[in-house]
Amino acid sequence: MEKKIRILVAKPGLDGHDRGAKVVAQALRDAGMEVIYTGLHQTIDQITHTAIQEGVDVIGLSIMSGAHLPICEKLMKEMKRKKIDDILVVIGGVIPKRDIPPLQEIGIQGIFPGGTSFDKSIQWIKEHVKQRV
Amino acid sequence: MGVARYIKNEKDEVQDVVLQSGIHVKPLYTQKDLEEIGFKPAQDLALPGEYPFTRGIHPLGYRSREWTTRQYTGFGTPKETNERFKLMISHGQTGLNVAFDLPTQMGLDSDDPLAEGEVGRVGMAVDSLRDFEVAFQGIPLDRIGAGLTINAVASIMLAMFQATAEKYGFRKDRVSATPQNDILKEMIGRGAWIFPAKPAVRLIGDTIEYSMKELPRTNPVSVCGYHIRESGCSPVQEIAYAFQIANTYIEEVLRRGHPIDDFVRGFTFNLNVFGNLWEQVAKFRAARKLWAKNLKERYGAKDNRSLLLRGLFGGGGYGMTKAQPENNIIRGAYYALAAALGGAQTTALCSFDEAYTIPTPRAALLSLRTFQILMEEIGLRDTVDPLAGSYFIETLTKEMEEKIIEEMKRVDEMGGMIKAVETGYVQKEVARQAYEFEKGVQMGELIKVGVNKYTEGEEMEVELHEYRLESAEEQVQRLREVKRERDNRKVSELLKDLERAARAEKNVMPYLLECCKAYATVGEMTKVFKEVYGEFKEPSIF
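ok -> structure tokens follow
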């Protein structure tokens, strides 16, 4: 029996705009994934801690404030330190095209700026996730 | 996305139109519709400036006075923001609306580890009075009102604004600030909350009570339906929730023994404009009428000035698209039209680059030009409430009114807005609807031009506002300077006074004023509040 994909939908930093995160969380749930939503104002430490506690396969970040590059750099560093860098990281929000290569460079491949369809992101996650035992 | 749902047959004939509020629009409206809905011109309409104010709060509308334009503005350091303020004013903007960065909104100083990467990004960084002095340098505060888009720490910012005005020699009874100061909508749809609901509402009560005497031209709250609509609620819910939020703040001040007519006229509203044009216009007219009735019947207000819904109708962020951004210029024009037909006192528009970045000067100026063309060329100053008497608009206004009353009742049954927010009821509803709308757009059932229809064409390159890391560094430097140069012992004592006042549930405003004048920082004052009030725990809605 196929195990459900567990995904943590996280709102890192100070940005309080959570419409997108909540909408995507519902879509992921309807697509058969187990979704844990962190709520607002999460630090990198809190996100990585929750990811470990909940045994997730994917961390999904939602960032609308434009602070995605510094936040993601910090996250990837911390994930390496906590030895969970095999968890798939995806990001959505307000992400200019020119920031996609730098994000990919720090190890984030799943980049879904505003306007990405549910189908596209869900499909991508299913194809790229490495389910953790 | 605010648009109506169009049910069409194979011949592309529109069989039904369902507005976001759930109202069905008929192909034709006649006198019969007015009769069927029980429309009575004397009670439902009256004249502009007369109860129930459906047609407007002023008998002459824009004939006597243009609306105030205030584009949301702020980024980087106070100096950069001051320059943009002056640019906008030189181009004809008549008011200010200050955007603060996230650390400031969250009560954190620019050198706080949690502020890293965010200083000056989505708004201006403010750590102390020094920053406000720079931001408002050379601005005639007795002629230009300042909206302050600040909520959790609105009390601090209002005190800081007063200190600034006084430093520049303006009388506190001559300056006009409008701190947004609406924490309940933060908890529903904007997320810049800090303290739990009850103490946060008490702080709002403090600012209202204080303003009554000390800052009579200040509008101490701008109750926002805007962000709740941005989060996914319908236009009907936008008004119902905004009114119930306003009622919560009213009751906090009444609890202190102040008569309603002494303070409620300082309330303003911030309402959204995107989506179906008719629905927005009818919404504003119904809202004016219901606000007047709410004050009269629920709270026994007697002074006519207490009954006026004064509003900033603008936005509307959620209507703007990332695809084909030039389309947003057009949308902005129509949204401005909705605001004008709706009788807004103040307005602001999201710029065409809304989905990309904070506005560049070019984008911000285009928004101003949109308003100026509408008012100076197209005829929106000509006459008051031009759509009055329309079979369609009057029927729709009454239908909106009925639905808003229904929704307000639902909140009453739940025990009021604080309960509704603490239990997560509103947030859940809003999130669910947001999901339904998004599905509707992705499935092509709700049309957004350029997004799911007419998607061909070349993509426009959007110039991005550049975030300067140097701004953050400069800001931290200035903060350190301020801390070095001020009387630190005095600050420490004043912060202790503030804490004592907060614990004793005294009005904190005079204490905040003293703290600000001594250059206490936003972070220091917020820390006091955090220790006294604790922090809000978001209800889990999943």
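The helical segments of chain A are 19-30, 44-54, 68-81, 100-105, 118-128.
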